[in-house]
Queue: 3 jobs
Job 1
Amino acid sequence: MTPEIPEKSPIRLDVDFYRDPHAVYRAIKQRGNKPTEVVLETGMAYLPPNLRAWVVTSYEDVEFVLRDPRFRKSIDKAMPLFAASAQGGGQAQDRSSLLYDNMANNDPPIHTDLRKPLNSSFTARAVAPKRQAMRELAESVLDAVAGHESFDLVQDFAFPYSIGVICDTLGVPREDRETFHQWVQTITSDAEPEVLRSDAQRMVGYLRGLVAQRRETGTDDILTQLAVSLGESQAVAQAYALLAAGYETSANLIVTGLLVLESEPDLKARVWADRSLVPTAVEEMLRHQSPFNLSLYRYATEAVEVGGVLIPAGSIVFLAFAAANRDDARFEDPDRFTVDTPRREHLAFGGGIHNCIGKHLARLEAEVAFDVLVRRCPELSVRTPPQHMEWKASPTFRGLRSLVVAPGPLRSGPGTAGAGEAA
Ligand code: HEM
């Protein structure tokens, strides 16, 4: 249902928004789809609770802000702006941690220095050879639930698989994945400040250890690349950015992707009958489900007119990628999920200089996951009823806490060649 909101009051983004962001986006659309003032109820990490900010929803406006240098990222300069924009004087849960001083939160020249050494490791060509290892990982994660009548797609498949992929990519030991997964979950949640701070400190300590080790005995992994090309604290912050941004979004894409297919039984049957449709389906899942719902912060360095609205200097701005990806001024019939035409011009991976560095890895990862699920679970079906689905309390990461599925009889692996491969 579209909530009715008085024209002038800021929209509160709360638990209803996490459950159904598109209800809020429809309300904004009814007001003319212009930049809109909001209050983000949930605080997390460096963002205080009840933060007053602007949300940009139309495709055209989102693209404009992504490329306009008057909207900046600088974690040092933004901290006082967060504090000034917090209604009721709320404090950020963790203002001191060096984890957030990474490429995702800074503009050039810092951003260039941090991102440039990594770009070549994340091109489509660089990640393509990972396909076979990803397939083996997905097969082995699925083997662990073989024989179960049902399992949790989030905790038993999507997270272990996507964490495994990012561990292997960075060179983080897989046996540590449970531990740092718990820390990342706390750091990206609305946990109590003491809990959040202590898990952030543990994460820093853990990453420091890995970086120090790679300085002693490097290998050809990305952690070594970070350890040798950056100072210690920069290497730690980059490793955190890659870990934190690099698995939850991918896991959420797999889960919400299955969910949207489940709501379209004919399309699901087509994908299950023809695995060559998987890459197009994944592209459409990215657009339709947008696992990165609201962007990270930006702030206006001066008053800027966007879509006919003047956003004052010093305002905090979030880009609603999920809304832009359903903008009917850009996509025909945008709420419809289709596997017939890839709509690759979506903004699920952002754009401009901060476009997702992991986009080729993420696409490949999701394609392999679905290819394995389709081939090995011909009768896979969702069991959690919609009224029992619990969404993560995050304005950024849109994902379910759990989704029970029944796999049906599992076909044995390893399989034949899959989507995008020569048969
Ligand atoms: C389906 C999976 C993914 C989605 C939907 C996604 C989405 C995004 C989006 C929208 C941004 C831009 C945020 C902004 O401008 O505020 C971004 C940035 C970023 N992503 Fe991803 N991402 C995914 C997977 C990954 C993976 C696998 C990695 C790690 C290899 C990764 C690492 C990053 C990093 C480090 C940034 C910051 C880049 C910069 O600021 O220059 N992401 N991602």
Job 2
Amino acid sequence: MKLSTRSKEYIIPEYSLTGDLLSFLTCNLQYRYQNKGNLPPSMPIQLWFGEFIHGVMEEAYLKWNNSSDKKTFPWDWEEEIKPIEDIITKRLKVKGLNPPNDYVNNYGPKENMYSARVDRSINIWGPHLFPLIEDAEVLIKGIRNMPLDEDGNARSEYYSINGVIDVLSSLKLDEISSIINDKNNDVENELDSSNDEIKSLDNEISNNSKRNSFQQTLDSFLVVSSDDIDDFKNSNIDDTSSNKDVNKILEYLANDKEFNDILKRFPDEEYEIIIDYKGMRRPCAPNKKDLDKNNIHLLNDDSINENSSLEDYKTWIQHEWQILTYAWLRSMQEDAKPVICGIIFYLNELVPSTGDLVAIREDLRNNKSDIPIDSISKEDWTLLNQWNEKEDLPIHRDLSDKFKMDRSIRIVNIKEDLIEDSLLEFDEVVNKIESSMIKELNGSSIKDAWRADAELRTCTACDFRTFCNKKKKSDDDKSKVPFTIP
Ligand code: SF4
């Protein structure tokens, strides 16, 4: 009797959008050592903080949501936030991610930057974000055809791609909007009825009965944004100390023209907004003029050759791909509604380090930011511009909350035509990872199979820099006579 042989194991490689694809794009070789080598580096601070802040925000939301009285803000660090930090620290340790010494040796938000960022993230964004969240930590997954390597080979027919998001639903937005609308209506009734400008805009809103309450709220933010007519005249977002009744996230959405245009044309009744948190500063971004001129959304090799300055915007563009891909992954889920936009929170902006502030100032001076100097208050810009980081004290406490909030929130509007492009970009990344893996499996050394290429600051914080190929010799080194045994 002929015994049947066991069929060949069928594998579908699984890639996480942030843990694999964005990490590979940061540096191929570092990704190989960190993710595929069972060689956890002693202190991958960026990786640790990214996971830490994500975990803390999720846990804080659950704590808020599960409390019967929906805990009011601000939360006390010692009593409310520290226990959350402790839980997440333990969870990460199990995964081999240990906190940096700066965190362990310094206690509390006054002493260490990481706890300060956690404290600010929860207390600044929590009151506005948590009431809007419909679902937290939603795992999204999809399958794509595996791209072939240059020799036409592939490990499998498909690959799986995944990510974790928080979801805001239009129903939730409507609910919060109704509360705000009611408040605004009360305020409007008290306003001087002779104000013609307000009256005409108000009529425009009330006449448009077809719009949902969220749309009405967005409109109303453009008319009356707070308890006071002065806020309307400024039509802008003040420090967190004022306007406590205004949901800042709705307000940012209201002030985003592209989002409003999309919403007005949106055919469906219900939709979703997806949320992601980043433990980093807002990346260098194309200014509005550059963006309009170049339609900067793709970063393939051709675009880099044509305009090498696009290289500066790599991270910015990759985050847009990420949100577009998340929108596609979310659309694969049965219970999902169409995703209209994504919001990224760059949480380091709430407590920027000295290095962050220097980089922010450089971006502004070089006009490489989507929030240019003329949209920053004169006080904030003067402070930042005149600050001497070598001699003066850190200034992050002196900058306004508005400056920090503006820089920490990014709205990425979903345009269907860009989703396919983003997916193709990520297919290309998977192709490169797979090609390097196949090369290594076929006997190439790790350093030959994986490219060592990263920005200087990534290399500076990299645990593998001592033996990495990229460790170029400085001119001094080159001039030295190589050591030989006589
Ligand atoms: S030193 Fe730089 S190029 Fe080398 S592995 Fe680390 S990040 Fe990559």
Job 3
Amino acid sequence: MRNCIVREAHRIVRSAACPLIGAGAAVLILLTQPFIAMAEVSPAPVLFPAAPAAPSALAPGISIRLTPTAPAAGDVMIVRLTTQAGASVSGQFAGRSIHFALDESVEQADGEAHYIGLLGLDGLFPAGVYTLTLQVVGLDGEAAQTLTPVRVRSRRAYLEHVRLSPALAGTLDPLVNQEEALAFAQLYAGFTPQKWWDRPLHWPARGKLVAVYGNRRAYNGVNLGTYHSGIDISAVRGTPVRAAAPGRVVAVREFVIRGLTVVIDHGRGVFTAYCHLSQSDVLEGQVVNAGDVIGQVGSTGRSQGPHVHFELAVGGVPVDPTYWMRVALP
Ligand SMILES: [Zn+2]
């Protein structure tokens, strides 16, 4: 692998060629401003930081816990709420809805219920202070609303310059990118309350991690304003690709950019996708366990060498999966 040094914005940064995406042509530039975007995900919705909200007094009997207290782009925001049993709970953050489910990991005391909601922050999520709005409607019909200010931190991102072979230049068509982004937004929008997993995500393939989540990419000098929506694991063609967690296969489909892809629904708005496969070994609707072989490593779609692009989506958007491969998502 060839390393070189480039000077950008009064900063000297190292750059490295990536074997998968145009050997000798990849240059990483540390951006002084957080983010833009990626390779496989569409431009994120424009979200404007709300004015900092004054923490409102919680209605009696309601408590809220947010983890992490100041999430970054690419993180999963975990909202835990304790209130009276039988209440209905809903929430919104930056224009998106948060789905809540009963948190079975906590013992439900008499008359009390613990709820949990997961919301992914995409890799382009602008830093700022936003308002978390939660509504609780008790069995008696009485409604309470709480407003909580949440600071979202920026995420360090690099710009990767990738030289694409002429055969793949068609994958840079903005329309193609928009269509694929829409297809995945629809796949990831599902929500079923049942949680299928109880362990950290299983590594999808034996191989080498060659690209992390969140970097922006310019292909042949074209920056589509997208970010790398997953991680890339380089492996020999034909290496088995395994389900990261139990779930139900919701898509086995050929995409222009992601190539042959398997998408699994793990419940609670959590999905994983396995892309650029040479073949799939599952059917839509099939239930799989963690570690089950679902396909083989290939190089279909916008890929220049055998690898699996692995995505984790939570609450509708791709997040950084690496932490959740060591720690079980709650
Ligand atoms: Zn990738």
